[in-house]
């Protein structure tokens, strides 16, 4: 049996928006932004998702230079397309805040939807210095370097948007939850969504309330995002990250 936690967030519940997280840093004028994007794309323009090559239908692509043309209905979401990678901070209920790594892939196949896949992993604090005192040169070299820890949650789903710019984000969480979020573009470079319904399995995160997410391109063209959750009646930051484009 599953537990249905359908929730609607009122505007006052989301009053503490995370918008500041994607608006930090020096402002760029239009020409500076274009020049920066062109410079950054030099290292990613020829990179894409792995392809099978013999698939009889259009391949998924996270690079707008390859594969089928992006559907006209997705133009308001175009800047999201790509593979993004970086680090973030998480503050789960009952746990100490920790650093995580993330790869976020947003791709299309020419149809009026974007595919969405997120993988996260824990990043452990750097090893203590002084390892060389034990005569372990490898440990000494690794001292001060963060270590990849346990694999964390995965998400998969789809972005959809209608002619009135109403966004639907459908997410399946690997820890046992299905979520539907609705939202709107805030600007051409920022998108905000709120949970309309969450459905947790018997073994899923029953304590995790409805959420609110903000995705946005920062002045340096990194993709930042913040997820707030309703915990004990209050919207609190739960996860956030800053990601660099690595493909697309």
From TrEMBL:
InterPro entries: Calycin, Nb(III)_bact/plant, Nitrobindin, THAP4-like_heme-bd. Residues 129-139 have a biased composition (Acidic residues). A motif (GXWXGXG) lies at residues 82-88. Residues 74-245 form the THAP4-like heme-binding domain. SUPFAM superfamilies: Lipocalins. It holds the Pfam family THAP4_heme-bd. Residues 1-25, 32-43 have a biased composition (Polar residues). It comes from the Bacteria. Residues 1-50, 118-147 are annotated as: Disordered. Belongs to the nitrobindin family. PANTHER family: PEROXYNITRITE ISOMERASE THAP4, THAP4 PROTEIN. This is Ferric nitrobindin-like protein.
